[in-house]
Amino acid sequence: MFLFSALMIGAGAATIAYLVATGQAATVDGLFLALTALLLASGFAMYLIYAIRRAMEPPKPAAGPAAKPAAIQT
Question: Taking the complete model, does pTM exceed 0.85, yes or no?
């Protein structure tokens, strides 16, 4: 999922760069296409940031076996 997110961010950035370079971003259709690409890229970027932060946090200690009650002596 990490690599797919990075690919989608790159594709969104490339789409916006293409629209600006060709001048299509100045039209209404190009503006909506650029905003859609930006929204898609930002959504995947938020997931990428979440995944990186989650991977960098220290692991939680594993819970050991539950304490067993002492045997009742009669």
Answer: no
